[in-house]
Amino acid sequence: MAKIDIDHVFKTYAGGAQAVRDVSISIRDGEFIVLVGPSGCGKSTLLRMVAGLEEISAGEVRIGGRLVNNVEPAERDIAMVFQNYALYPHMSVRQNLAYGLKNRGTPKPEIEARVAEAARMLELEPYLDRKPRALSGGQRQRVAMGRAIVRHPAAFLFDEPLSNLDAKLRVTMRGEIKRLQRRLGTTSLYVTHDQLEAMTLADRLVVLNKGEIEQIGTPLEIYHEPASTFVASFIGSPAMNLLQGRSTENGFAIGPDLWRLATGPLDDAAITIGFRPEDVTFTRDMRAGPEFLLDYVEELGAQKLVHGTVGGQAVSATATAEFQPQESMRLTVPEHRIFLFSTATGKRLRTPITPMQPAGDFSPVKA
Amino acid sequence: MKRAQFSSSLLPYLFLAPQLAVIFIFFYWPSAEAIRSSFFLEDPFGFGSTFVGFQNYIDTLTSPEYLGIAAFTALFTVLVTFFSLAAGLLLAVKADKVIRGSSAYKTLLISVYAIAPPVAGLIGMMFFDQHIGPFVRLAALFGWEMKVGLNYWDTTFAMVFVAVWKQIPYNFIFFLSGLQSIPASVLEAAVIDCRNGLRRFWTVLAPLLTPTAFFLLIINFTYALFDTFGVIDVMVKDKAANNPITLTYKVYMDGFRGNDLGGSSAQSVILMVVVLVLTVFQFRFLERRVHYG
Questions:
Q1: ipTM beyond 0.90?
Q2: The CATH number of B50-289 is which of 3.40.50.620, 1.10.3720.10, 1.10.760.10, 1.10.20.140?
């Protein structure tokens, strides 16, 4: 168990392509950190640099305070769980679990005790003498986890460990990983592109985009206070609605519609308005927000997803199962649930929004 | 599983016929002919033959010359198989790590395989030539006066050397493709689990290469026994008598140079039985240690 410090780390490939740019994360002892981002965002590269499978071009990585830039992967005191499990196909489950310990000269009784302990924890006891090819995907995943657990390492590194499993098993294994990590208290770095996995597992999330950190925070911080349009659109399902508009005296012009919101004058005229689908309510009150034109409805059982357009831009909203959508409705969102972003930089604008007092005519105003 | 049904029971045999014909004409028929003639003493000029029973076998197996050649063949086969497998594996492991210019490197290594055995023997001969051979000069630097074609062991060395050199590319290709079929993440997991590279090789890489290695062992073994004929022929033909030859070459010498068809047939039957026994042995006892993925 140890803290991990990633300090101004870069990965530059021959030819100048940069996969990771100036990333600094300090991971506390026992913390579960999830690196999340779309494919090609550098999350796996970063993980592999911590593991020692990829060279660090610039910057420093410290595990438990020890600089590991030039330390062999086997000596970094980390264990890694791979996406395709990477089990040794010629070894039995028992041998797979014992291999890392054997190479470190662990005494035999100790190896047996640790293998037995991991097997019990992961319910692998009936399969110890099987070869990996005789196991199901979920069992193989468990063996991969077991191989990491028996080592009692300073940190677990997970490289998309659940993406080869089917949806149902993924949910089960997700819970199991969380439970094990809580129980063992081992510092963990977990890479995924699945935002739901990231939200449910993480103590803190690191959202990466094009090799750079967009935002670090707890899942709820990231969900409720996204720092940029990228984070806003990536975290949360269905994704946050982002409407491009202009700031005017009376509110925001979205296409031909005016959304009356008081923010005070903004320096940046071109802004993006963000709000989550679950914060939308519909009304027939003409004096409420902008006009929503219905496109189609997706039934999810417990609720429905209503898709449509506002000012020609796509908007989706969740509604109760009983809700009867109309062809044209008015859309309202509580002001404190509306986010403003600069369209140019994508960064969040920290402008408090105060509700505008209704005054006069609120019918659509041509902007 | 559903069994395919043919409307006529003859049809499947018709489909099999070409393959069966090839095997029959080029393997069973000559084999049967060899077995038949091994029991006869053939007149060298083709004026008839006399049945002599097992006399050809007895003559062959009690001849000290034959036993000496058999011993040499065993040594030669073991050396050629071992060194060509080892060199092929070493080159493949190294080539697998090359990133820049790897295709040029691989092509260069593979291209040797395109050389016909007699040509390889000829090139080898030139390397070991008494007057212009660079290897002979190299050996002279270390005080080794190499006389290929005159000195028994010098010739052995040259023969093994050329035979190995010829076979390396073949082993290289198979080992390389074997290496590349091992998932990178398994090797990475091993890097995290084991710091010692050599230990990693023997505990992870080598076991995963056993199917390739087992296949190559059988192929190389047959190569050393039979396909080295061209190399040996170029090396020892028209040379002084006391040169090493293998059993296969002796079959040819006795049959076509010595015109002793009966004795030559007996020898080839013995060779056939030996290879059969060894191959069965390999499959029975070595294949157990092979891990098929």
A1: no
A2: 1.10.3720.10
